[in-house]
Amino acid sequence: MTDYIELHAQSAFSFLDGSSSPEDLAQQAAHLGYPGLALLDRDGVSGAPRFYKACKEAGIKPLVGATVTLEDGSGLPLLVASRTGYQNLCRLITRMKLRAPKGEGAVRVDEIEDLTDGLIALVRKPVLIEPLLGLFNPQNVYVELQRHLDRDQESLNHELVGLASQFNLPLLATNGIRYAKPEGRPLLDVLTCIKNKTTLEAAGKILSLNGECYLKSSEEMGQVFKDLPEAIVNSLRLYDRLDFTLEDLGYKFPDYPVPPGETMNSYLRKLTDEGARRRYRPYYEKAQRQVERELALIEKLNLAGYFLIVWDLIRFCKEQDILVQGRGSAANSAVCYSLEITAVDPVGMELLFERFLSEERGEWPDIDLDLPSGDRRERVIQYVYERYGEHGAAMTANVITYRERSASREIGKVLGFSVETLDRLARFVRPWEFVTEEDVESLPFGRAGLIPKDPRLKLYLKLWQQIQDLPRHLGQHSGGMVIAQGRLDTVVPLEKATMPGRSVVQWDKEDCADLGIIKVDLLGLGMMSALQDSLKLINASRQEVDLAHLPANDPEVYDMLQKADTVGVFQVESRAQMATLPRLKPDHFYDVVVQVAIIRPGPIVGQMVHPYLSRRQGREPVVYPHPSLEPILKRTLGVPLFQEQLLRIAMTAADFTGGEAEELRRAMGFKRSAERMRKIEEKLRAGMEKKGITGQAAEEIIRSITSFALYGFPESHAASFALLAYASAYLKVHFPAPFCASLLNNQPMGFYHPSTLVKDGQRHGLRIRPIDVMHSDWLCTVEDEKTVRLGLMYVRGLRKEAGLELEQQRKLRAFTSIDDLRDRVPVRKPEITTLAEIGALNAFGMRRREALWQVEKAWRPYGSLFRDVERKEQEHGSPLSDMNGEERLIADFAGTGMTIGPHPMTFHRNRLEARGVYSAAELAGLPDGRWVKVAGAVIVRQRPGTAKGFFFITMEDETGLSNIIVRPQVYEKEKTLLSTAPFLVVEGPLQNQNGVTSIRAERLSVLESALAGHTSRDYH
Hints:
Elements: H1 22-31, E1 36-42, H2 48-58, E2 61-69, E3 75-80, H3 83-98, E4 119-123, H4 129-135, E5 141-145, H5 151-166, E6 171-173, H6 185-196, H7 200-203, H8 218-224, H9 229-241, H10 264-279, H11 285-300, H12 304-319, E7 325-327, H13 334-338, E8 367-372, H14 375-388, E9 393-401, H15 404-414, H16 419-426, H17 455-467, E10 471-483, E11 494-496, E12 503-508, H18 509-514, E13 519-525, H19 526-540, H20 555-562, H21 575-584, H22 589-598, H23 601-605, H24 609-616, H25 630-633, H26 643-653, H27 658-668, H28 673-690, H29 695-707, H30 715-734, H31 736-745, H32 754-763, E14 767-769, E15 781-784, E16 787-789, H33 800-812, H34 818-824, H35 829-837, H36 848-859, H37 864-876, H38 885-896, H39 909-914, E17 917-918, E18 931-942, E19 951-957, E20 960-966, H40 968-973, H41 975-980, E21 983-993, E22 996-1001, E23 1003-1006, E24 1017-1018
Parallel strand pairs: 1-2, 4-5, 5-6, 8-13, 9-12, 14-16, 17-18, 18-24, 20-22
Antiparallel strand pairs: 2-3, 3-4, 7-8, 9-10, 10-13, 11-12, 15-16, 18-19, 18-21, 19-20, 21-22, 21-23
């Protein structure tokens, strides 16, 4: 048994006040032989779940507490002795956080009075001793001593020892841990500089005096406090009093209020049976058996209330006319399908229910609801807050960590690198992820303007590696909400979100799952908004269309998908998806499910895409890594594409239990999955060896499974997304005007800039009408089944309130002149100037420059010049010549970011044809391998991490899109040109295979264009 236990440690979850992860602290404490360790992070318990889990794995006791900030900026360490103490700590932190701006907050000492039960105060500030004795039971106040070879600190300790004797208080030795090992001190100094926005050179006394704040052994601490042995002994005595860990959290999910005479189980059965009979027509035996099996497990696990609460959210959405669809693993459940939570039939698709819920998993199921982005989603979120109260519901946090580029910039600033150097460094960091310190001289520092032998660079690289994945601050999850029976703020502290009207728990979704806290994801999806808006426009024209009852397997939809004519179609509009669609040739719904899932990092890195497509095209036979895997992989031609398949493979090939398979799933989706996956790989190899699966078969299975750590897609998730992909494709084919208008009204979303959506619509026969103050609303509108009118929302610089007022005034009475518009609408001169430049005032009987002239008149008092000019105008009109075609194009892009007139490339076509440059539409008719020249506006740039340095460009001309592939060597040579040029001429061999065309760029040059302000969508 150790003679000392450390009861005051801070981790990196003190946010710039600690430099070690909770896991590192737990491991080091176990290594030193401590039976437990106390984590007292600043103003929160954000690191407590990870600390709890790490301590359990290390076999030591994870003690909880926090250091709360007082009004004078000092900290008061509080240790939790009981569950009541933990609840009081959470409420105290919540109190200080909810009343202060995000990231701030402090507590007055007297505010602690009603929340002291179960808490033990460690005091190091002499003036606090008497006030705290008035609030706490004296046996719960300890005088804390720390010794870090600091003369001033020793003087303070001398005073504290005297006060402890005067008030008969126990002494407690701690080391005020800020990092696990001595080598953590340099990183802490960097974090201190980041916190104080300074450099190491200028930091001075704000840096730590030395490197003593690490976890020391019991023997070391005994030597440090050999003159005060009672302070060491008291650490053991106090440790024995600390009974609480997060295992005793006491979280309870709310009960659902059911009608009289019903229990939650009976009411869930009733709703499920009614829904199943609507969904399954007829309600056949296999579906009935699956529903009954699920209901029995739900009752056994006492989860009926959870399903009812999610059903209640669906009910609310229907009442409020808010489109909603469940996805994720919930799509594996026939009960969710029957309750209309999800739209995928899991019985018909043979989805794995255990992926969603099983007795062995020992955790809550996870239901994700996709909602329209914006106000409609916010109404659902606010409904949850209203129903469960300010302290009963909150969003889950998102722990913002240091990643490659943020780490590069922050550390570079601290080390004193210039802004220009940091900009250059940021471009090179991605390839550095796995280098060692010894590799530093081979890195491209020279291109960043640095000398490779600069001694700062080794320090830079070392710190850059150490800071990776450490928490920077707490953000808000995109939509995860947790709710509790009673007060959620007795389970976890709440704090303000950046967005008004929201609060956030201090734990992220993984933490909540680890601790059995239930979460519902309310996720905003731009396509849901576009689909709902499309339906509203369609049904307003007396055509009844319902997403739930779209005609299945529409041949025109699949014809469009096979041609990769998918600009604007959900999930299948990217360059990579377009390159795959003509090869996969989807002709029924499951093909769309595969298409959604196959262009993901998991299948790509696992080398699964090409084998699947080759087998699909009949160019290679269907084979299985092992005969036992045929039932699992038959539907995907022997190639694992989905998470569920990987879990089944692990259970079949390596005899994983359901619990081990679940750990595998968690690792595959976890930010810090690499280390966890390595451990699981060892288990997989051992399990397969026992079953006689070795050699190439074992390696293929291992590669398939471990590659899915890079975001492999669940089949149920892909099926839910495939429904939206099919729906968006159906609307694009059959209702192009409402669909186009809705896409334009819900930007930014998807893969393409609105200018590309407009040109795609025009190429499909849509008439796109210009912005016009006599016809345009704020939003884009549908004038007939083939005509879209652009909305005032696309006028750059026009305030929304002015645009909406213009719309309202015009509907009351048409405008008669520019003066009339000025008098009735609070529009500013720069706003109406832009309207004139883009032709939105042409309805008043004048062209653009004449309108600009009239705007000047309308906004200026008359002088002699204008009186003279007015007489001439009456005789000769405006003295300004009208814009030519190219000038109108420039004005359109400057004022709206798009044009409905000729594509910019139209003005270059004659000159380009003379140079032998092909249009995008001509490429499909050329043979594979021909050397070609193409030119266009760059609309998308990509360099995905899975592409091994390849760079991809999508270019647009007046006939369509062309895809450019740039080899790493060419990219390095032409990086600046590729990253900045708005228009390019590209030369290289054409690749024309299976209906997919692309050019392998060998030569590149800038195409000079007057349209310098053209916008592309880059690196997304």
